[in-house]
Amino acid sequence: MLRTKPLWAVAAGLLALPLLTTPAAAAPEPLRVISWNICGEAGGDRGEAGYCPYRNEPGKKVRQIAGLVAEHQANVVLLQEVCGVASDSHLELLKAALGSDWSFARADGARPDGRVDCRGSLSGNLGLGIAVKSQITDTKVTQTLPPDPTGKSKQTLPTLCVRTASWADTRICTTHVLADPADPRRPQQVKNIRTAVSAGGLDVVLGGDFNLFPGSAELKPLSGTYEECDAGGAKRNEVTHHAWTNGKHVYRKRDHIFAAKAGTSRRFTACDADQSLMDTTANTSDSGRPSGYSDHAPLIGYLPAKS
């Protein structure tokens, strides 16, 4: 006769089994951010004021971006003056270089004539680009440059922001501020950028070419609200831009990465400007090969995961 275990024995056996638990969700990684104005839009020959190295060779610039990502194990890339849309543009080539773990967003930025096409031998549209090693869940483009009161310029300089699955409580943004220091719209543009990135009370990571120097009163709406990655420490306010004026080198810091204000849990743990990628050769017709890949140096900032 088949005998069965009493109910109390079955229950005791079940209690002895290991409990099945749901695996904990992976903690978000620290943010390792690269911001770089790659001067990627074609125009300007050696010796001319608008010259920028390798402007008509997008593949060379993309290889440098991908190399930076590998070197720093970066998971956020913020690009200015970059071409996108076309299959041979910077952003499309970068997609292929970084692989399927990365998501991309972009926004057009029109020149003063209103055109957004990348000139010279390039194709695609000029503007901003963001690449993140995560899934983008939301993208927002805000035209933060006020209209030209004279009606002569049709230039647009947007602020591009994304939210991601990996860092859901953080808005990741990039922007580009007017270069002309005499343009009266610059102060309002900076205020508009702050409004665009701070909406909703999320944490913010904002990088870009601000064309404003450390300590500038025009930059105060951002520098007074957020922490800057190289505002202190041994590498304070490193140079990120090189130009020639009256035959002389001019080195300045124009590029910045901002994030949550100092005193919060998101303080920068490291910041560096990679000046080896910034061209510092003389800009004459017989200067030879450039020493870098842009007139700007990429800026790299590390932020811990939010605690």
Would you identify the CATH H-level superfamily? Endonuclease/exonuclease/phosphatase
Topology-level CATH name? Deoxyribonuclease I, Chain A
Task: Indicate the percent of residues in helices.
Answer: 10-25%
User: How would you write the strand order of the largest sheet?
Assistant: 3-4-2-1-14-13
List the total number of helices.
Answer: 5
Structural class: alpha+beta
The top-level CATH class is: Alpha Beta
Largest sheet, in brief, is:
6 strands, mixed
Instruction: Write down the secondary-structure element order.
Output: HEHEHEEEEEHEHEEEEEE
* Number of separate domains: 1
The proportion of strand residues reads 25-35%
CATH architecture: 4-Layer Sandwich
Dominant shape: globular
Residue stretches low in confidence (pLDDT < 50, at least 5 long) are 1-24
GO biological process, one term: DNA repair
InterPro entries: Endo/exonu/phosph_ase_sf (IPR036691), Endo/exonuclease/phosphatase (IPR005135), TDP2-like (IPR051547)
GO molecular function, one term: endonuclease activity
Keywords: DNA damage, DNA repair, Endonuclease, Exonuclease, Hydrolase, Magnesium, Metal-binding, Nuclease, Signal
